[in-house]
Fold this sequence. Notes:
By secondary structure, the chain is α/β, with parallel strands linked by helices.
Amino acid sequence: MRAAAGARRAADGVPLVVEGRTDAGHALLTARGELVDGCASVLARELDALPPDTRRVEVDVSGVAFMDTAGLQFLEVLEAYGRRTALPVATRDWRGQPRRVLELAGLVDHSCTPDQAWSILRETSQLSNTKLRTVAEAVATSATGTLPPVEVRAALRTAIARHTG
């Protein structure tokens, strides 16, 4: 196994570290800390440092202790990288509060890809006539016990069923 560029941390003090290693074209990135503002750029730098022979990217998020709506930007960066490079990308091992946020959104139990997660959020926004940012905030806030509005919950159920079969 070959280490990638090592630990990446945003210069502005984002409490997230992403470490990478590759083996036979499979890149395993390990994220530790919090998915908050600035976390997407930490992931983007690690993805940009992957070797050109990378054929698959997996992000282990078991070390992520907290996630706010910026965690959705983290997923968007991963999904965009997969589209741009035509490589399969995935996350694994969501735990604690971040898992709870994604469970409430219905994104973990169905093992969504980042692309499916964004499709679900976008469709939920459209079906409920609610801004995407508001949907994301409602999903993130729901981890504290505040449920999203009824129309957002209904739209989430519809979008999840459509995108996860």
